[in-house]
TrEMBL record:
<dbReference type="InterPro" id="IPR001102">
    <property type="entry name" value="Transglutaminase_N"/>
</dbReference>
<feature type="active site">
    <location>
        <position position="321"/>
    </location>
</feature>
<keyword id="KW-0479">Metal-binding</keyword>
<feature type="binding site">
    <location>
        <position position="443"/>
    </location>
    <ligand>
        <name>Ca(2+)</name>
    </ligand>
</feature>
<keyword id="KW-0865">Zymogen</keyword>
<keyword id="KW-0356">Hemostasis</keyword>
<keyword id="KW-0963">Cytoplasm</keyword>
<dbReference type="GO" id="GO:0046872">
    <property type="term" value="F:metal ion binding"/>
</dbReference>
<dbReference type="InterPro" id="IPR013808">
    <property type="entry name" value="Transglutaminase_AS"/>
</dbReference>
<dbReference type="GO" id="GO:0005737">
    <property type="term" value="C:cytoplasm"/>
</dbReference>
<dbReference type="InterPro" id="IPR013783">
    <property type="entry name" value="Ig-like_fold"/>
</dbReference>
<feature type="domain" description="Transglutaminase-like">
    <location>
        <begin position="313"/>
        <end position="406"/>
    </location>
</feature>
<comment type="subunit">
    <text>Tetramer of two A chains (F13A1) and two B (F13B) chains.</text>
</comment>
<comment type="function">
    <text>Factor XIII is activated by thrombin and calcium ion to a transglutaminase that catalyzes the formation of gamma-glutamyl-epsilon-lysine cross-links between fibrin chains, thus stabilizing the fibrin clot. Also cross-link alpha-2-plasmin inhibitor, or fibronectin, to the alpha chains of fibrin.</text>
</comment>
<protein>
    <recommendedName>
        <fullName>Coagulation factor XIII A chain</fullName>
        <ecNumber>2.3.2.13</ecNumber>
    </recommendedName>
</protein>
<dbReference type="InterPro" id="IPR008958">
    <property type="entry name" value="Transglutaminase_C"/>
</dbReference>
<dbReference type="GO" id="GO:0072378">
    <property type="term" value="P:blood coagulation, fibrin clot formation"/>
</dbReference>
Length: 735
């Protein structure tokens, strides 16, 4: 042990009156373990060399050897042994002479943390027996030859997840002899989705390959009318990522004894992924200024972020929801908890959790941005983790929502989950953790309220279908999209949906009731908003269509407001105002076009290139208001990635990235990033300028490490243009 006693005393945390030992919440710290633990006075003639002595321990820890193959840990780029709990693994011990069971007695000791205790599961003596009991610690000899024995060791199915130190102890008449501290025999123990007794057991092999072993994924973004796709490199097997993930639990000060429980791990991780209130991994920024940091859209994966945090111990700047979710997914998969990244389109951020998103209109029918506190995010990314919920009634295990994006506090910290998806669907929001907040995110009503001059509020319009319209994740075994909206909610307007809402209300979700007297909609006129495909740097048109189903002539005073918005639905500014009076003939449809010029929006564009249109129309004859809103994303050009020559593991390969500037202006200070797990670590290149309509070409060389189908992911970033991505699937041949 390298720690001196002086440093030891300083670091010793204060012991409070209730516990004999300080709390043990660091996997990194160690204690001194005596190599000779005497039972009393040692006689003068005692020589440890007379007894059975360990000469060497062989861990079978290479990727092609039995342990990592059987435990599905062969992809981890680590020289140490990594196994999954509740499943046997092999080691070999070489002694100084043949082992004689009649005479010799030895056992193994696994220790974790600085204050190992047997009752906390942080000190585990493993005795050698005749049989291995499933899911319980034990060891048996499977082979004896000369001075060597081969052991099969079973770990407990509820074992702490982390890095254990291994000692072999030999009993002598005068004391216990132990092997010295040897970090080469350290053993990482992870969750085991392949083991039926494990809390994270998943019974489908294809799903395990996707949700635990796939190191790249897809992020769905954009908006409901223009779904955009980008790849994300999780990189959970890359060098040092496992240590970085264990460090996150130390940073969150999760007691070691709680680290066998996926519920506890998810709860503390959802807080430590963001930097609010605990100096966690990623600092969020939603204001389009990313000084002294990396713009959220520039990241291509989680590895750089986790490794930077692991070395600097300071929050990494900057992230938005998909970055928090991408890093959280890496953490969960790395530890062996099945996980997937989920996107909800039109996700409600309901500040007062009353299941109602209030949009306040002024006299003209414009949205009053000062009064309107709630917002509908174009999309929001969170994670689902798979586990049993023994803390809830039967039926609420399976996928659980966990969210590392800081939105609202839960028990005093910015965290969210785990909340059972099944409980959200059925309205059982009384079950921990944070189910009411997630229920509101996918189920709120959008209510348009007009304030009269005397202060009374008139409900002009209610849209019950706008929020949580589409919930998606990547399909298993492919890059396609899988819709999972029905996992979260019943069909809009169905009897079951009503019942789920009533259940949620009964369990304390607040919902303001709108009296029927104040709200009677205009039933005989429909209004629709259509937006032409919008390409960055070009003009496009917006069309408002009225359908008058009555036999009356109507005049509609119509107001269109075009806003540049953050993807969180928060408005930056209004760039287009247009009002006109529409004549609505009886029993007919009328369409009105409004042209949006690129010169009107380019100077104010935010990095998500997203617009939000509000249209309100007041029918003159009845005084009723029609209201509609729609988010629109611009089509952004992509990066092109190509490979030249051979693509063979261990041999040099050549990659080019190309991009053509579509804008009428020069792009300045452009950063390109390229990464691919198993192929190359993140490479970065800066370009001073890319003139209008010109093409940039970046060539680079790398040595792919792993054969098989791999993915290269690239991003381009500068102040005038963000969210530019490209990807390429590459088949890396075996040498």
């Amino acid at each position: 042990m390298s720690e001196t006693t002086g440093a030891d005393e300083k670091k010793q945390p204060p012991v409070n009156g209730r516990r004999a030992l300080p709390s043990s919440n660091s996997n990194d710290e160690e204690n001194e373990v005596p190599e000779m633990e005497a039972f009393g006075l040692i006689p003068r003639g005692f020589n440890p060399k007379d007894y059975l002595r360990v000469v060497d321990i062989y861990m079978f820890k290479d990727p092609y050897e039995i342990n990592k193959q059987q435990h599905h840990t062969d992809k981890y780029y680590s020289p140490k042994l990594i196994v999954r709990r509740g499943q046997p693994f092999q080691i070999q011990i070489d002694f100084n002479r043949p082992y004689n069971p009649q005479m010799d007695q030895f056992w193994l000791e696994y220790l974790i943390g600085r204050y190992p205790q047997q009752n906390k599961g942080t000190y585990i003596p493993v005795l050698v027996g005749d049989v291995l009991k499933p899911g319980q610690w034990g060891a048996k000899i499977t082979h004896r030859e000369n001075n060597s024995i081969r052991l099969s060791i079973m770990s407990s199915v509820t074992c702490i997840v982390g890095k254990f130190r291994l000692y072999v102890a030999v009993l002598t008449p005068f004391g216990i002899l132990r092997t010295h501290r040897n970090s080469a025999t350290d053993t990482y123990i992870l969750f085991n989705p392949w083991c039926q007794q494990d809390a994270v057991y998943l019974d489908d092999e294809k799903e395990r390959e996707e949700y635990v072993l796939n190191d790249v994924g897809v992020v769905y973004h954009g908006d409901i009318n223009e779904i955009k796709v980008r790849s994300w490199s999780y990189g959970q097997f890359e060098e040092n990522v496992l240590d970085a993930c264990l460090f996150l639990m130390d940073k969150a000060e999760l007691e070691l004894s709680g680290r066998g429980n996926p519920i506890k791990i998810c709860r503390v991780a959802s807080a430590v992924i963001n930097s609010r209130d605990d100096n966690g991994v990623i600092a969020g920024s939603w204001d389009n200024t990313y000084t002294n940091g990396v713009a959220p859209s520039a990241w291509t994966g989680s590895v750089d972020i986790l490794l930077e945090y692991y070395s600097s111990k300071q929050p990494v700047r900057y992230g938005q929801c998909w970055v928090f979710a991408g890093v959280f997914n890496t953490f969960l998969r790395c530890l062996g908890i099945p996980a997937r990244l989920v996107t909800t389109y039109c996700s409600a951020h309901d500040n007062n959790a009353n299941l109602q998103l209030d949009f306040f209109l002024d006299d003209e029918g414009k949205v009053d941005t000062k009064l309107t506190k709630d917002s509908v995010w174009n999309y929001h990314c969170w994670n689902e983790a798979w586990m049993t919920r023994p803390d809830l009634p039967v039926g609420f295990g399976g996928w659980q929502v966990v969210d590392g994006t800081p939105q609202e506090t839960s028990d005093g910290m910015y965290r969210c989950g785990p909340a059972s998806v099944q409980a959200i669907k059925h309205g059982h929001v009384c079950f921990q953790f944070d189910a009411p907040f997630v229920y509101a995110e996918v189920n709120g009503d959008v209510v348009y309220v007009r304030r009269e001059k005397n202060g009374t509020q008139v409900v002009e319009n209610i849209d019950t279908t706008h929020v949580g319209r589409l919930i998606v994740t990547k399909e298993v075994g492919g890059d396609g999209m899988r819709e999972i909206t029905e996992d979260y909610k019943f069909q809009e307007g169905s009897e079951e949906e009503r019942l789920a809402l009533e259940t949620a209300l009964m369990y304390g979700v607040k919902k303001q009731t709108t009296q029927d007297t104040t709200y009677q909609p205009q039933k005989d006129v429909d209004m629709e908003l259509q937006v032409q495909k919008a390409v960055l740097g070009r003009d496009f048109k917006v069309t408002i269509i009225f359908r008058n189903k009555s036999h009356n002539h109507y005049m509609a005073t119509t107001y269109l407001s075009g806003n540049i918005v953050f993807y969180t639905g928060v408005t930056k500014n209004e760039f287009k105002k247009h009002s006109f009076t529409a004549k609505l003939e009886p029993s007919s449809s009328s369409a009105f076009d409004v042209v949006i010029k690129s010169s009107e929006y380019l100077s104010d564009l935010l990095d998500q290139a997203s617009f939000h249109f509000f249209v309100t129309a007041r029918i003159k004859e009845t005084g009723k208001v029609l209201a509609i809103q729609k988010a629109v994303g611009l089509e952004i050009p992509a990066l092109r990635i190509k490979t030249q020559g051979e693509t063979v593991a261990g041999r040099e390969m050549s990659v080019t990235v190309e991009f053509t500037n579509p804008l009428k202006q020069t792009l300045e200070n452009v950063t390109l990033r390229l990464e691919g797990p198993g192929v190359l670590r993140t490479m970065k290149k800066e370009f001073r300028q890319i003139p209008a309509n010109s093409t940039l070409i970046w060539e680079l060389k790398c040595f792919p490490r792993q054969p098989g189908l791999r993915k290269l992911i690239a991003s381009l970033n500068c102040d005038a243009l963000r969210h530019v991505y490209g990807e390429l699937n590459v088949q890396i041949q075996k040498p």
